[in-house]
Amino acid sequence: MSINVLLVDDEAIDLEWLRRRVLASGLNITVVGTASSGFNALKIMEEERIDIILSDIRMPIMTGTEFARRAKVLSPKTKIVFISGHEDFSYAKEAIEINASGYLLKPVQDKDLYEMLGSLCAQMEQEREQDRSFSEALSLVNKELLLRWLDESSPDPAEPHLRSILTPLLQKGAAAAIVEIDDLEWKLRDLSEEDTRSIMRQIAELIKSFAEDAKLGTLIAVHHTRFVILAALAQESFLPLLEELIRKVAAASPCTVTVGVGRYATKEAELHESYQQAQAALSAKWLLGKNRLIRDTTESSLRGTPGAKIEKTVDLLLEAIIQYDLVAIDDHLMELFTKDLPAGKKDVYELIIRITSKLHADLQQQNENLYELLQWELHQPDILFQFETIHDILSWMRRRFFELSELLYVKRQRQKRKLIDEIMRYVEENLEKKITLKEVAAHFDFTPNYLGYLFKEEYGLPFSEYLNERKTSRVSELLSDPTLKIYEIAERMGYKNIIYFNRQFKQTTGMTPGEYRKKNKI
Question: Is residue 485 left, alpha or beta, with left meaning phi > 0 and alpha meaning psi from -120 to 50?
Fold first, then answer.
């Protein structure tokens, strides 16, 4: 594998001169980039694997040593060589502090440059060989032994063979990380078995390639959804790389991954503990969410939620559902699922069943059926058991209760419309009788006030105005018949006083019944 070199100098001529001389070295070297500033160089390092950096030490804004410090965070194993004039030799102290691999003085002689590059390339090859040897030593059997030891709740000291694997890993400190693929069960459930296997292989290969390219450490596939990484990098480099892995998987596949990480260790027992911590961190995905890196987790206290408090909140939730108040529905769900919530899945499912059972019982008192409205086949929402995090459950519950609230609202609107239609039909059938709001309300088993409110809300007119309008319309129809006397029409419409009849008609139409006939030539 070629050794990748990055060249950094703010002087374009010096940079091109250096590029040509490096390429003429005859070594197995590839110049993957040149940069005129530390900022540009860092961008290149985010996209490329860099083994050696040759950098001018005196540059504007970001000095060579400042750039080197940041570069070491991105890639601790990268070798850095500074180039400077004699007057800049005071920078040598800083170079020593950040463990620079070399220091060349301008004007750089070809002999000095090639000796430096040759020495660094030899070191790189030796380190790569050590990495390959260690990786090859971890055969499938060795990985299985290592995983079995990590999985033991109280392991005995490692066997000599296992210790030979652990010792080189722990020399500079190591940590355990567990990578788990999220949502495989429901995200891929509609795909064929072949397509599902293909996607799983794709994700597994992506994780493996990334671990190898970034030199994360030892990767062990536990099963098709979970991988263990034993870090071979410093913590300040390892964690950002894990974050990058999470982003890459999310961008390249239909699934995401969540990573649990334990603390760094230098002893066997500490590494075992780190693995247990990584498992505990990953289990917190249930509460903290997926597609993220989870480190130190604090045990949630299983305080539970007082029953009376739940009852009150569910009552408020039902009221919000009935009132079609989506904001209040969300507020009450958040209160139920984020305050004093038990950490265990079983406790959460029991809470959900308790909530839905109470809602169903309360709705039954209003002649409604929660399970029929939402088309749940069983009196228990089994689909919830497919979700991996409480955020998934909360999102699903929110959608379903919004849907329930809308269904009830639409149903009420239809019932109101049906009731108003029946009232209007009743009025039409009894127009020629003395009819009042009180009489109509009694007929439909409502109080006059409520029926009046309901009618105006739905129809837009007070009931008395509607009734008067309809009566006037009927009188106008009867007046169109010249064979009927005006007093006969008044009696027929329930008016005993002809003067009151004339006044009511004029108040509505602006003319008396006689004037109406004269105007319409009846």
Answer: beta
Query: How far does Cα 118 stand from its chain's mean position?
Result: 50
Residue range 1-10: average pLDDT? 90
- What pLDDT was estimated at residue 34? 95
Query: Which among 24, 25, 205, 48 has a CA at the least distance from the CA of 34?
Result: 48
Strands 29-35 and 3-8 come out as parallel
Which pLDDT belongs to residue 378? 45
Confidence (pLDDT) at 280: 80
SS3 90: helix
Q: Is 199 helix (H, G, I), strand (E, B) or coil?
A: helix
Smallest CA-to-CA distance from 260 within 246, 280, 240 is with 280
265 closest CA partner among 254, 277, 256 = 277
Q: How far apart are the first and last CA of the chain?
A: 109
CB-based contact 253:187 (threshold 8 Å): no
In order of 296, 348, 404, 463, the CA distances from 338 in angstroms are: 20, 11, 22, 48
Burial 120-133 (b: 16+ CB within 10 A, else e): bbeebeeeeeeeee
pLDDT-derived band at 194, boundaries 50, 70, 90 = confident
Q: Rounded mean pLDDT of 232-260? A: 90
Which pLDDT band, with edges at 50, 70 and 90, does 210 fall under?
very high
183 pLDDT tier (thresholds 50, 70, 90): confident
Say what the pLDDT of residue 379 is: 41
Give me the amino acid identity at 151: D
Phi, psi of 206 (to 5 degrees): -60, -45
Computed from CA positions of residues 7, 10, 16, 20, in that sequence, does the dihedral angle turn out positive or negative? negative
Residue linked to tokens 């088309």: 375
Residue 451: CB partners within 8 Å, gap ≥ 6?
423, 437, 440, 441, 444, 463
